[in-house]
Amino acid sequence: MRRLLLALAASLALAGAARAVLPSEQLADPKLEARARRIGSELRCLVCQNETIDDSDAPLAGDLRVLLRQRLLAGDSDRQATAYIVARYGDFVLLKPPLEPTTVLLWFGPFLVLAVGGAGLVAMARRTPPAPEAVAPLTAEEQALLARRLQGEA
Question: What is the spatial distance between Cα 141 and Cα 42, in angstroms, rounded to a whole number?
């Protein structure tokens, strides 16, 4: 059983990312296909959001791959093809969007969330309950009264 688990772990570690580019989407020209793959590795799948369009098997990612290849076949440069897709889908389609006023939240949003969460944790840590006041020991009279009451209950 142990060998099976080790073999499974080794095969998973050696497995590369599965490419979702279908053979029907690939271009006949290897240089053009290489350009499409390079550009596709910089574009985000809008459905999956953490995968490139080449890695995603979502239908929208497939549409983006086809659109990209159509633009390259039409003679667009890499920059023109990317700009065409960005014009249609916005800067969020880029895995590394440019730092502009409209994308500030994309760049700094995670850090803002961490800062707010950290500030909340610090505020909770500082708000400790007050220490209990020291209680004076019972007097002899109070001890006797307590003993009588405890014996009355027993």
Answer: 83
